[in-house]
Specification:
The complex is a heterodimer of chains A (436) and B (467). Chain A is of the alpha/beta class. Chain A has eleven helices and 21 strands. The N terminus of chain B is likely disordered. With 467 residues, chain B is α/β, with parallel strands linked by helices.
Chain lengths: 436, 467
């Protein structure tokens, strides 16, 4: 252990682990889990709370190929068609499959692992989305299911316009009849009640007042929906049906409606994302990993090899040392990649990011065009170690995972969570192997 | 822009005739200098923070109040949205829902964009109390008395046995509930018959500590003149109610060879921030910063055993006050177990130690919101899961609901218990029937909801490490 000058002028020993993972999104969580299950003493540090609650909760591997017309049927089969610098090509198809197996094991409430093929799910906008894994709460909503659907929106929750979503779905030629209705949520929650308020109320089957009478909310909600039901076999709600007791909420509603109940995944903040976050942190805890959030990594020591990094706590820089490091800080949105007017850079280790000198070549005029910036990120060798401009490994003991990696456009491909899981898994597994 | 910088493109006065200017083409020439719309500011300008909010609402999903009360508009409104409303309309009055914010500060840790939400809440609450709340109202005086707990506790500590009787005397509590709005559902915490500082004086104060620290260094094989000195910020609760926590801190730190000093101090200000009594908080902050900054200059670090106290010194002080030395004190303030994790090989020592049913075998641990915000919510669980003879179980991420003085207000008592319900339930299901937490008021709520006795991690550390 290395003694370093502390902010106090005395000495402090670094907080030590075998593997240190920086970043608490799905890539960092997967890397930590993979390393911990491989027996490494692993620690996760995340500047802020995990961003998973900003995610829909759907886990995509690959939805679309560049220049292809329709959605990808089998993502694994499509990987060889991706460009060679794509993260899936770097880690290889077998690793993607192993990574998904780890995910399936950690996220017990997820479905879709029975097949390699993509599932098709309705979104809250009424489109059909190809995705590889979906929460159990969404499984009765599959577009390949032929039961008719009633979508139910709540007046005060403007993010989900059920009649509009229903007509979009009908226009997409789904193989079932679909209608949408908007009702008032029993108890008249205020217009901007938080999604967690709905979830908590349903979780606890709290009391609401309907026409002067106190009623348990699950019963009252089912009663509001029942008159609209015209024999549909399934009913879809915005994804606010409980948090800790989500299964029980759906079951209670299904029983009273005489129809299957599903959630339509929503934009942020998202209950399915929150539930996934809880499941993955529980898996980390069970695997004996350490994790802490709230303070950023702001610097490091080392040349060609990382000796230690510094975590800033209210101005004090605390050394954290490890043998192996995983960089999983996210992309341009997650601030793992930063940009100024004239430069795009990786702020912690200064990893090289290939970019056109002319910033006007970073993007296209067309909003949905083939933007260069969408693929910005660090480039990596076969072991996911970031490389410099000359393609040499920048630091022997640093691996990158998730959207801090360049070479792919997750928004266009619908590959965000899959790349994060696959590269997180590979980085964690390989780091643990080195320290074993 | 400073005087020494080169003049901008306008200086020549002929920008309009600049032939290179073509609005259809991006201006990428050397002369282009983007306008600094929001310059970095040295004062407490919240504009950059408000502008960083991209409305993802992650903060709202962390708010324990909004989860049980849909009349509370949540941190996104209380913070950036209300701040903007204040700027656009001179007559804008701070919405009175700001008083329903419990100052748990969870929204800070949640924000992926670094918006200083709790700073905005504290500022708005201070303004609301200053400008909109009647200084003659019962609510104002009730809040002021609750916020200045230290003053009441100081009086009570002079006659602890009488105070313990009187404060929980039924008819008096009924009257306090009806007249003042202080709930009679809760039992007042007992006052210790000997305060921490009275005990500390009997131990010989700083001189006694130096002697014991030197003996410990010799025993440990450390250099006798090692630079290991800390200034203990005990806060009000360890002083008047749970001096055993302060004693545990002293014994654990001396075990590691630290000399402890206990400087003059007031309240950290936490209950005052939460009640919008910013001037009261400043008076105490001035005392604390003044005595701590002298010690920091001499090489001491400030150590708190209460996570709300450490939170106040390291984050709220520099966010709200401009007092000489305040940033230095903030940088040098740590929570008590955190500091040992950084500077000592605490993990290994705990791994090699064992306890033999000293306090309990199994603990139901609750991480206080303010510990969460400092990145300390996993600390006790990860440390003690390696300790032989003790089991520790995290009872989940729910807020305890009491939030200091919040749950003591009659009108907020039920909300406070509704927030705490999830924690009570998880405590019920945990194997342990002894609670553990760093925060004194969380401990109060845990005890109130379950009847469990509640310990501070320092007490278990003392049992494990100190002979």
């Amino acid at each position: 252990m290395e003694a370093t000058p502390s902010p106090t002028g005395g000495t402090s020993v670094a907080i030590d682990s075998d593997v240190l993972v920086i970043g608490g999104g799905i890539a960092g969580l997967t890397a930590t889990l993979a390393a911990a299950r491989a027996g490494a003493d692993v620690r996760l540090v995340s500047y802020k709370q995990s961003t998973l609650r900003n995610a829909s909760g759907l886990i995509d591997i690959l939805g679309y190929l560049p220049d292809s017309d329709g959605p990808v049927v089998d993502p694994y089969a499509a990987i060889p068609d991706l460009p060679s610098e794509h993260p899936y090509r770097i880690v290889g198809t077998d690793t993607v499959e192993e990574a998904m197996a780890l995910f399936d094991d950690a996220a017990a409430n997820y479905r879709g692992g029975h097949t390699d093929a993509n599932a098709l799910l309705p979104t809250h906008g009424g489109t059909i989305k190809p995705t590889a894994r979906y929460p159990a709460s969404a499984s009765a909503g599959l577009a390949s299911d032929e039961r008719d659907v009633l979508l139910v929106g709540f007046e005060a929750m403007t993010d989900f316009d059920a009649p509009r979503a229903a007509s979009h779905l009908a226009a997409a030629d789904v193989p079932f009849e679909v209608r949408g209705v908007t009702i008032r949520f029993p108890g008249d929650l205020r217009a901007d009640a938080k999604v967690t308020r709905y979830a908590k109320l349903l979780d606890t089957d709290g009391t609401v007042t309907v026409r002067g009478r106190d009623r348990p909310v699950r019963e009252a909600l089912a009663e509001r929906v029942n008159p609209h039901l015209e024999g549909e076999g399934r009913v879809g709600f915005p994804a606010v049906l409980g948090d800790d007791a989500a299964g029980a909420v759906r079951e209670a509603l299904a029983e009273r409606l005489g129809a299957a109940v599903f959630e339509v995944p929503m934009g942020p903040p998202s209950l399915p994302g929150l539930r996934l976050e809880d499941a993955l942190f529980d898996a980390l805890d069970a695997a004996g990993a350490r994790f802490e959030t709230g303070n950023p990594v702001v610097g490091f020591d080392g040349d060609g090899e990382i000796e230690q990094v510094y975590v800033e706590k209210n101005g004090a820089e605390i050394p954290y040392a490890a043998d192996e490091y995983v960089l999983a800080t996210g992309g341009l949105v997650g601030k793992g990649i930063e940009s100024e007017r004239d430069e795009v850079y990786e702020p912690i280790f200064g990893c090289h990011i290939a970019q056109p000198d002319d910033r006007y070549a970073w993007s296209e005029h067309d909003a949905f065009g083939d933007h260069e910036f969408a693929r910005f990120g660090v480039q990596a060798d076969a072991e996911l170690r970031p490389t410099d401009a000359a393609d040499d490994v920048a630091y022997e003991n640093l691996r990158a995972a998730g959207s801090v990696l360049g070479g792919y456009d997750f928004a266009a491909e619908k590959s965000g969570s899959g790349v994060s899981i696959a590269t997180g898994y590979a980085a964690g597994r390989d780091a643990a192997e080195v320290v074993a | 822009m400073s005087d020494t910088e080169s003049p901008g493109p306008d200086a020549s006065g002929d920008t309009e005739s600049d032939p290179s200017f073509d609005p259809a083409e991006p201006n990428t020439g050397d002369s282009f200098e983007p306008v600094d719309v929001f310059p970095d500011s040295d004062d407490f300008d919240l504009r950059p923070g408000a502008d960083s909010c991209y409305k993802c609402s992650t903060c709202d999903t962390n708010c324990p109040v909004a989860e049980v009360d849909d009349d509370f508009p949540g941190p996104k409104f209380q913070g950036p949205e209300q701040w903007r409303l204040k700027q656009t309309d001179d007559d804008y009055e701070v919405d009175d829902s700001i008083m329903d914010c419990s100052n748990c500060m969870r929204c800070d840790n949640a924000c992926p964009s670094g918006v200083p939400l709790s700073q905005m809440h504290n500022t708005a609450r201070g303004q609301y109390v200053d400008e909109q709340m009647s200084k003659l109202s019962v609510e104002y005086w009730r809040n002021r008395i609750l916020a200045n707990y230290r003053t009441s506790a100081w009086f009570a500590s002079k006659v602890p046995r009488l105070a313990n009787f009187a404060m929980n005397f039924g008819p008096a509590r009924w009257a306090m509930d009806k007249a003042m709005g202080i709930t009679d559902e809760r039992e007042f915490p007992a006052f210790a018959t000997e305060t921490f500082t009275e005990w500390w004086a009997k131990q010989g104060g700083a001189a006694g500590s130096r002697e014991r620290a030197r003996e410990a260094r010799e025993r440990r094989g450390d250099p006798v003149d090692a630079d290991k000195q800390i200034a203990y910020f005990h806060g009000c609760y360890s002083e008047y109610n749970t001096p055993e926590v302060g004693k545990a801190l002293v014994r654990v730190y001396e075990h590691f060879g630290y000399e402890v000093v206990v400087p003059d101090q007031g309240c950290s200000g936490t209950p005052m921030f939460a009640n919008g009594m910013v001037d009261d908080a400043r008076r105490h902050a001035e005392v604390n910063v003044s005595s701590m900054s002298d010690l920091v200059d001499e090489g001491y670090d400030a150590i708190a055993s209460c996570t709300s106290c450490s939170m106040a010194l390291r984050q709220e002080y520099p966010e709200l006050f401009d007092i000489e030395g305040i940033d230095d004190v903030a940088t040098h303030t740590f929570e008590s177990v955190e500091y040992l994790r950084i500077h000592e090989d605490l993990v290994d020592e705990v791994r090699e130690a064992e306890v033999d049913d000293e306090l309990a075998e199994e603990f139901a641990y609750h991480a206080p919101c303010h510990a969460r915000n400092q990145g300390l919510d996993r600390q006790a669980v990860e440390l003690f899961r390696d300790l032989d003879g003790a089991e520790i179980e995290d009872v989940g991420e729910s807020c305890s609901g009491i939030s200091g003085t919040y749950g003591w207000k009659s009108e907020k008592y039920e909300k406070s218990m509704a927030i705490g319900e999830e924690m009570f339930d998880h405590m019920d299901h945990a194997a342990g029937e002894t609670g553990m937490t760093e925060c004194p008021t969380c401990a109060m709520q845990m005890e109130h909801g379950t009847g469990y006795e509640v310990r501070h991690p320092l007490e278990l550390l003392e049992a494990a490490l100190v002979e």
